[in-house]
Specification:
It contains six helices and seven strands, in the order ββαβββββααααα. With about 210 residues, the chain is of the alpha+beta class. It has a seven-stranded antiparallel sheet with strand order 2-1-3-4-5-7-6.
Length: about 210
């Protein structure tokens, strides 16, 4: 369970969550003018920060990579398999997850300037195992479901609501079918085999065209 999102940036207000359904709303006060809408209050930014803390790639355009925020730390408190965790991340150290509190056996940690961290790759691997039961035998298969491909259905980006079966517009048919069949506890390997058929069909059409 996710309990808290926080940051050392002076203007960031910590967000606390409770068991059950949590709704993030932007309220308008009695003195708010017509020009002071609920837009731009930070709801989408909060979703992006949570996604980044759950192992998202910090590419150009990510909020943590913004010039004004790159040196700031963003963190979250959560439980994973009933074990308390506290981790932090920044755009400056994009591939590192700084672990502030965790059981010793949970993660393989390295040290940097007196702080302990793990790679984002190992963090995502741990999340995949605990949230979706993604074992190494599954993730090593080509076109297999990954933690990020599954988790993105629950923490969708702003443009991720245009289609119910996609979390971004350009998502491939293979990615959609594999992820959804896995989440629905169906045989995702059948969906993976469909991709092989599609590729052969493309090859046949290309040969006919040639």
């Amino acid at each position: 369970m996710l309990y808290k999102i926080y940051s050392d940036h002076p203007s960031f207000k910590p967000v606390k969550f409770h068991p059950g359904l949590n709704l993030v709303l932007a309220e308008k006060g009695t003195n708010s003018t017509d020009g002071q809408t609920r837009n731009g209050a930070g709801k989408s930014s909060l979703v992006e920060i949570i996604s980044s803390l759950y192992g998202g790639d910090l590419k150009k355009g990510n909020i943590l990579k913004a010039k004004e925020l790159q040196s700031s730390r963003f963190g979250m408190e959560l439980t994973l398999n009933d074990k308390p965790l506290k981790i932090e991340r920044s755009g400056y150290h994009a591939t590192k997850i700084f672990v502030k509190r965790a059981p010793e056996s949970l993660l393989q940690l390295s040290e940097l300037d007196g702080e302990y961290y793990c790679s984002n790759e190992n963090w995502v691997k741990l999340l995949g195992e605990n949230y979706f039961g993604l074992s190494e035998s599954v993730t090593q298969i080509k076109n297999s479901p990954t933690f990020r491909s599954l988790f993105s259905y629950f923490i969708r980006p702003p443009k991720g609501f245009d289609s119910p079966d996609k979390w971004f517009p350009q998502q491939s048919t293979c990615s959609v079918q594999v992820a959804l069949t896995y989440l629905l506890k169906l045989d995702w390997k059948i969906a993976k085999e469909f991709e092989g058929v599609r590729q052969k069909d493309k090859l046949i059409k290309a040969l006919k065209s040639a």
